[in-house]
Amino acid sequence: MSKADLHSPIAKLPVETVYEGKWVRMKKRGSWEYVERVHGIGMAVIIIAVTADDKVVFVEQDRIPLGKRTIEMPAGLVGDQEGEDTLEDAARRELIEETGYEPEHVEVLLIGPTSAGLSTERIAYVRAMGLRRVSDGGGVDDENIIVHEVPREEAPRWLLEKQAEGFELDLKLWGGLWMIERNPDGSLIER
After folding, report:
1. pLDDT mean over 71-85
2. CATH, range 43-178
């Protein structure tokens, strides 16, 4: 039990499964309902990727819960592929699948909850460096992902233009943009 758990009376409440589907299960702890993933390890990665010519790699895709297209950084679940056991492995796989870029190196920067009041899922920011194009990307199955490469200096304005056009923006984009050139502690990365 962690130090944070010792100070929380919630940690002692019994947990009940209310519903289990193919991809998610709904649980109840006390009077609070929340969801968790059925597959994988309950963790996802969001990949901060910048090309050699200083363009940020974004993906556009349909998100069924929102009923809209979104702009996101490449991302995906950890542990939903047989034999995959690290955040780095998942980040490499997702970056190639979604964007067609293979990274020379990946670095896990931060891990934390995505929506602490709704889900047990955690996400890891991963910085991908030394990108090399190996395919067109576009995702797997019916993901229908469109890859956008936007000059880094223009990225914030471009994102707001996309939002004005009706796209949903993943708010984690702003943290990802900040971590292109900074470490989580605020120090500048060496390029």
Report:
1. 86
2. 3.90.79.10
